[in-house]
Prior knowledge:
The chain is α/β, with parallel strands linked by helices and 194 residues long.
Amino acid sequence: xxxxxxxxxxxxxxxxxxxxxxxxxxxxxxxxxxxxxxxxxxxxxxxxxxxxxxxxxxxxxxxxxxxxxxxxxxxxxxxxxxxxxxxxxxxxxxxxxxxxxxxxxxxxxxxxxxxxxxxxxxxxxxxxxxxxxxxxxxxxxxxxxxxxxxxxxxxxxxxxxxxxxxxxxxxxxxxxxxxxxxxxxxxxxxxxxx
Length: 194
């Protein structure tokens, strides 16, 4: 069922691609990014195809310390994060949404995460792990997006908005952690694309 809904949501994307894409904000567009993980790390590719005027910011939420900016994504953009193996929590803020994704990463593996509209509320976003048959479709979805990378401007933006980011984290993260495990979206070690 989820695959059919994602296909339905993505099916409208090619018509939208004929329009001028939304400009990249606080990031730099680049022609190529190495997606193989750095030695001793795992790689997570975050992809946003979802349309809409809202910018979505993705952060890593450590157990201790402030949230760290991963990427700022607009429609048809993608970003690769190299991260240490083990457990991670990612947070998305944008379009009135604050969403979380748990992840367990395995060294040397590459994972995919889709920034998608929530099915219940069209204007809100979620982080959806790519798994199962979606893994075969993910390369085609990636082909429809532009690579971006963080810059000094990205980090300045994150610093200037840190208080708002932490307010969203403080408000929503305890609620998310209190939910039963079955209600958490999780990127599992075995969900690797390769």
